[in-house]
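Notes from the 1:1 (GR / supervisor)

We went over the backlog. Supervisor wanted to see one worked example end to end before approving the batch request, so GR pasted a single chain during the call. The sequence is below; no edits were made to it. Supervisor asked that the structure be written out right there so they could see what the output format looks like.
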Amino acid sequence: MIDVVMPQMGESIVEGTLTKWLKKAGDRVELDEPLFEISTDKVDTEIPAPTAGTLSEVLVQEGATVAIHTVVARIDESGAGGGAAAPAEAPKEAPAPAATAPAPPPAAPAAPPAAPATPSAAAAPPPAPAPAAPPAADETQGPLSPIVRKMAREFNIDLRQVKGTGAGGRITKQDMDSYMAVQGARTVSAASAPGAPAPPPAAPAASAPVASVPSVVPASSAPAPSPSRAEQARTRLEPMSTMRQKIAEHMVMSKNTSVHVTTVHKVDVTKIAKLRDRNKGEFQARYGFGLTFLPFFARAAAEALRVFPVLNASIEGTNIVYHNDINIGIAVALDGGLIVPVIRNADEKTVVGLQRSIVDLASRARSRQLKPDDVTGGTFSITNFGSFGSVFATPVINQPQVAILGVGTVEKQPVVVDGDSIAIRSICYLATTFDHRLIDGALADQFTGKVKSILENWSDEIL
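Structure output shown during the call:
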């Protein structure tokens, strides 16, 4: 019997929502056949079967959110199946036959006419109607996660008005956040529009007659004026998204685990810039995607890691774990956070292969279609903050790794060359953050210097 577990979809992910079973108990499944769908704060994806056999038990129902590594089902490799398999959904009980209706009771005597209402009772306003429950989602919107149902219930949101961007049109938490933000902006705009009608005055509260009390308040003690609306609206309270909370926890854990030190090297990438300018048109036409600077940096880092393998290692207690494979994680910015999908065996790929992998992983990360293997097993990371114009930064190590390379923006600068000559060159800054528990500054500088040497002496034939 093989256990099927909730996978970990990224280093900072600790739970996932099982949104749909694609097989039911007793069904035959094949190896790598899609078994169920999950949703996390960063990824919506199908999870394949880890083995061939019969789905004998379903332990977690659709819509449930469980921690990673929780057993959600079991597969019988013998194919016989389990005798008491738990169904994916509990069967509905058959309705009980209706009992014979009893004879109606005799009519009650007519009530005496009601007394005329007192003035205070007549003036009392009618009770306010109870707020209506939010309409239920259509079946076409797909299964909803518990947090989406909770938001719809708490904020009285009509789910039929929310456009789902998840798998099969499913509504995600990000869709709910976006819908609420748009509705809030519309409300503010309508209230502040010229000529907008003023809100109706509040109805006076009904009060019971009270005895006359002589006034004892001195004339000088007038009530203080209430603060203006502008003073009340200087802050806005908003809960952190689950993604933001998990990223915060992961960053604090990394800072509390590793001794972070960053070294910065200035690199002349003029040869690569000219090579890219000459080939990017043909490259786009041949491969269907553009040529950026990032695969050159990934290629140089992979070669340098072969020379300095300790930067491709990790720490377990008092032991150093040297990884034979070079699996480079590439940080991808998402709405409200980031994720680090992994290029496996990066040292075996050419610039073309690395660019293809970067485009594929970034595209699937932003469409929430990454697989479990895409976000696990990284041994070294690269973050390209230069794509947003940053010159250099001090990145945080992605645990349990011991180093990360940050790439600054490539910009032309006047540089002294050949002794006393000044030339315009394409310059960028490389920032290597390393764990000082394992790596000394001299070794980190040698690694970054090796990356710099490869980039500055790039051969025009290597693409």
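Supervisor's comment: Residues 259-456 form a domain with the Chloramphenicol Acetyltransferase fold (CATH 3.30.559.10).
Batch request approved.
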